[in-house]
Amino acid sequence: MNNNIIFGFFRELFITEQLVRNKTDRTLPGDMTTSQFALLTHLIRSGQSQTPAELANAFQVKRPTMTNTVQKLELKGFLTLTTDTHDRRSKWVQITKRGIKAHDDALQSLMTQFAPMIGDLGTQIFADCLSELQKIRHYLDTNSRE
Fold first, then answer.
1. Quick one: which of 39, 53, 48, 18 has its CA closest to 102?
2. Which helix (H) or strand (E) holds 122?
3. Of all residues in the chain, what percent are helix, strand and coil, respectively (each to 5)?
4. What is the extent of the structural domain holding 10?
5. How many domains is the chain partitioned into structurally?
6. Residue 122: is it exposed, middle or buried by C-beta count within 10 angstroms (0-12/13-18/19+)?
7. What percent of the chain has pLDDT over 70?
8. pLDDT tens profile 34-88
């Protein structure tokens, strides 16, 4: 195994993530944060309600951190919290139509911001990398939980 290749790969991911996060933070509409956008994306992708504990686990953050993000999105009308009918202590988080619209607007803003890069590099470079990055993410996701 060549440690330089492995370290170089992750170094590039870290740098790329930082550059994308900075651009995303400057581009998202209103006062939406990257973490809030990520939560909306997760709920849209999963297509189902989840508890704050399940969301914290999925994002590998502490529950109070996730609760804070959920509360901020609920105040904006992007999420609703409902009480579990079987376990009155649990809540279910669900994205609202307004949350879906906010996510769509944010995604459109991001695509506009990234359009010059896509125009210069083309879409094939992203397609070529996507499945390989998904394999690495899946491995880390299923093997990194503590």
1. 39
2. none
3. 70, 10, 20
4. 3-143
5. 1
6. exposed
7. 98
8. 999 999 999 999 999 999 999 999 998 999 999 999 999 999 999 999 997 888 7
